Structure formats: structure tokens, C-alpha cells
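Figure S4 source data
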Amino acid sequence: MNEVKPQIVASLMPKSQRLTAHELEKATENIPYFDILELRIDAIPSCDIEMVEQMVSALKELNGSFQILVTYRTQSQGGEGDLEESAYQQLLVDLSKLTQIDFIDVEWEPEVDRSMTCQKMLAQGAMIVASYHNFNETPSLDVMKKTYFRLSQMGASHVKIAVMPQSREDVLRVLHAVSEASDALTQWVTGISMSHLGLITRTAQSAFGGCLSFGALEEAVAPGQISVRQLFDAVKLYD
């Protein structure tokens, strides 16, 4: 198991082609409360690599030592992105050429092979957060453990699963999967049980071997996400 300090990720999801003064102000106000800023680019209309580069540069100019994770969440994984598969993979490769980006999210889907894209990204020096989302249910413990293993095969430094609970037992199963995966894998492991029912998986992530807790700068971008300030106070209890 990796002995790591849990990190708070602040999610920012702009809906225009430039970051607004308000969005930059919100990021600046909350710098003391997060370690990584996640720039969600799937809601940006006609998003291209130059726009992303400008946004990342604007964020890097803020007075903070945080890292940047760029995520393009596809519709099949609960986001707003509607790129065709080839365009999605090309976007990932193009993002990996931007040296100011610290991490790039790559989605894992059982029926799609993105291994060559990951190899190209790694060759450019990118750090990959391999992710899988299920908004319908919480799979069995065995399926989640196998999913973590498959994510680990993508060359990622971080592996992340986010699933939807229907019961308290579902939430416990996610924490169990995080605990076992963090012992078995060399990557940083994150497991989120979404919605308010799964809130403990966000606040107590580190107690079970998890490494990333996602909070909102303003509006939640995922079910059950709380503000980074609330998350910062809650996570401290488990340090």
C-alpha cells in the first residue's frame, strides 16, 4: 500500500470558452482548501486544445501551489462530452502535450481499447488518472476489484472508481474495495460512493486507503459532492 497524504481535489466546470472573473475568484478564494484543481472541460462549447491551454495558463497564474487535473467526462460516464471515440482519444493525446497539466483523466470502458492512447500520453510525459463511473448501481466486490486491476493496467498513477449506491451495504462495499485495492496495487486508489448516502466515502477516504477526495468550488459536478471548505474540515478529522 502506498503511504500517501490524502489530497483534496476541487472541481471547476466552466461552460464558456474562457474562465470568467467569478470562476477565477472562486478558485483563488479556495486555494487554502485544495491540493489539486480539476478542470472539467466537457461542458465547454466547441472546446479545443488552445482554449484549454489558455484556461490552464490562467489557473497557473493564481497564487497557489496546487496541481491541475484536466477531465473530459463523456456522456456514457455521466458527463456532458459528446465527442466521437477517435476525437476523444485524440483530445487526450493533445492534452498530454501541454506541460502545465499535471494529470489527465482517462475513462475506462470494458468494450473500448484505449491502451495505445495511454501509451502515447505516457510517452509525452503525462500522468494518467484512470477512472470508471457507474451511475446505475454498485457492482459486486469482486467486479470492483477486477475493475481496479484493469484500471491499473492503463499505466495510470491514480485509479478511481465512482459508483451509485442503493443501500448502506453498497457504501460499505466500496470502502471494502478501496481498502483491498490500496493494499494490492502500487497506484494511488480512490473509491467514491455517490449521492448523499455515500458521503462518508468522500470525507473518510483516507481512513480506508484512498487518496483523492473531490469537492466543489461552487456547484457540485457530481452527485453528493460537497464544497471543498466543508471537505477540508471533514478530512482533517482522519489525518
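Figure S5 source data
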Amino acid sequence: MNQLLLLRFSAMGDVALLAPVVQAFTQRYPEAEITLVTRAKFAVFFEGFPNIRIVGADFDGQHKGLAGLIRLFNELRQLASFGVVVDAHQNLRSGVLKSLFRLIGVPSVTIDKGRAEKKELTRKENKIRRQLPHSVERYARTFDKAGFTLQPAQPFQFPSFTSAKGELTTFLDHHTVNYSVPWLGIAPFAQHEQKMWPFERFAPLLKQLYTATPIAIFLFGGGASDIAQLETLREQFPQAILVAGHLSLAAELALIRQLTGMLCMDSGNMHLAALSGVPVLSIWGATHPDAGFGPWGQGDEAILQIPVDVLTCRPCSVFGNKPCWRGDLACLNDISVELVAMRVRQMLAR
């Protein structure tokens, strides 16, 4: 059996976006096997695919530093005799691992992240605006370099997360959810402020949505800070269901599959919803789908943003981690509650 070593350590959305490529690989090359090195918690994205082994990288513990990478290399050598290393991450750690494998005669291929063209898209002056390849397409091109031609499905849907069925059923029974109304997921957060619609607008948004139509709303988030903010929403709208902090990642994914739609930012939750085959409405600020990170398999109906001919500074960042040049975050603040409510209703009707 052909053995392929695949490297993509983080972040959550970027690892999840490998799923359509891994699925296409397992379908076209059923005799081959992938060993994917990533964070252990991301193994859930691939549990439904055959011939894939997940190796959990612990870069805060046993695989920390150069000595840890050498330890990881030796662990991987014991697993299989790899024919090629596919680096879908391209960072210092993946570079070290590729160098170690080259020393024992294993070739490697590396993703082209398109850094130069992304810089042209986001620079302050003389932007070159064009649709750049999606991350999924970049992953597929990297496999092509290794001799594996792939056509990832779009739209794509994760296989069912049957292992989480009992956990999700218990959660939904506890909340006595109405199954006859639309289910809307809301994920207000992203990694950077420049990608987040003002949180104080979600309360008037929920008021409009609950007033307009029967609906069940599920609140998604990550860490303690997200949960604390979502709790303030739930105090105003006790009928809203707080998901953040109450379900495993597998159960969250199983719940997302059942949603009618997901309102989110340019974030990991956007990718998880799109990869679950769920209609998405994603709000964009400093970043732009042209950089190649839009919801996979969905079109303009999944995007809400101030047009670039109205705000010519957009996009000012690939990842949303740079300060606003104008200082007013007009790209987010100029998106009204009424507009979001209207687009959400359109999404739920799709």
C-alpha cells in the first residue's frame, strides 16, 4: 500500500479544509494510506474516511523544540515507510520534519500559499484585486505535485458523526428544542477584532429575528471570554441555546449538520458550517473572500460585506490581524442590524 505523510498542524479551520481533499484522495486512490500529523483534537474531521491515520502532534509537550521534532520524526519512521511527505502547512516545524525525511531519502512537496499575490491584494496602495485560489484548491495542487491528481467535491459534507449521536440527543432533549422551526446557528467571534461585527448588535438582531418568525437559535463560541459574552445574550433571550462549552467538537459538528443556516464571521465556524453542507451567511471586515478563505462550495449569497468600491481600503489584511488604517473599522460598523436580519431571513428561506 502506498504511504503518504501529510503535515498540517493548525489552525482549526485550515485543518478542516483538508477534509474535501482527503476524501477525494481516499476515493480516487483506495489502495493508498495517509498519515496526517496535526493536533489530536482535529482528528474528528477525518474519522469518517478510510485509510487515514492521525498522529497527534504535541508541540507544547513531548514534541516541543528541535528535540521534540526529532522525537516525532522517529515516531513517524516507526509507523510506515513513507513514499512522500506532503507539507500542507509550510512553517518552521514542517520544514524541519521535511529535512529529516530527506536525509533518509523521502522526497517532499510543499504548498504554495501565494504570499506575494496576497500581499498585492491587501497592500494599502495599488491593490491588485483578483480571486485567488481557495485553500482547498491549494491543498489539491500540492497533492498534484506529489503525483496525486484530485478534484475535491463542492459542496462537501462531513460524514455523519455517529460517535456523538448520544451526546447530542441528550443535549437537545435537555433544551426541549422545537424541531418544526428553522434552526439558526450564530457564531459571533473570530480570532481578531478586525473580523468581528460589533457584539453589541447581536441583541437587537436577536430581537428582530425572534419577533419576525418562530426560530430556534444556537450560540456558538470558543473560550471562556466568548462564553461570558454569550451568557449576556442568553440573559436577555433565555430561549436561545448556548452551545459553547457544553458539547464536544464531534457533537458540535453533529449539531451543525442539523442547522438550517449559520450566521458567522470569517472564522473557523464558517468553515465547519460550510463543510457540513449548511447554508452560511458570513460577515467580512478587514479580510476578503478573494484571498481564498471563503466558505467552500458556496457563492456570493454566503457573503455579507461592504463593497470594495465603497471602502477602497478593503481588504487590508489576509488574516485580520492588522490595525485598521482608517481607525474606525467602517468595514464592520457600517453593516446594519437591519441588513443582517434581512440576509439571515433570506438564508433561512434558501
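The mean pLDDT is 97. The domain at 167-349 is CATH 3.40.50.2000 (Rossmann fold).
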